Amino acid sequence: MKQIVILGSTGSIGTSTLDIIAKFPDKFRAVGLTAGTNVEKLEEQIRTFSPAAVAMADDAAAERLRARCKGLKTTILSGTDGLRQVATAPDADLVISAIVGGAGLVPTLAAITAGKFIALANKEPMVMAGRLMQDEARKHGVRIFPVDSEHSALFQSMEGHRVEDILRLILTASGGPLWNLTKEELRRVTVEQALKHPNWKMGDKITIDSATLMNKGLEVVEAHWLFDIPASKIEVVVHRESIIHSLVEYQDRSVIAQLGLPDMRTPIAYAMNYPARVPLDLPSLNLAQIGTLTFFNPDHDRFPCLGFGYEALQVGGTMPAVLNAANEVAVQAFLDRRIGFLGIAETIRRTMDAHKPVEVSALEDALGADAWARAKAGEIVESLAAAAVR
Ligand SMILES: NC(=O)c1ccc[n+]([C@@H]2O[C@H](COP(=O)([O-])OP(=O)(O)OC[C@H]3O[C@@H](n4cnc5c(N)ncnc54)[C@H](OP(=O)(O)O)[C@@H]3O)[C@@H](O)[C@H]2O)c1
Question: Is 130 found in the same domain as 10?
Answer without folding.
Answer: yes
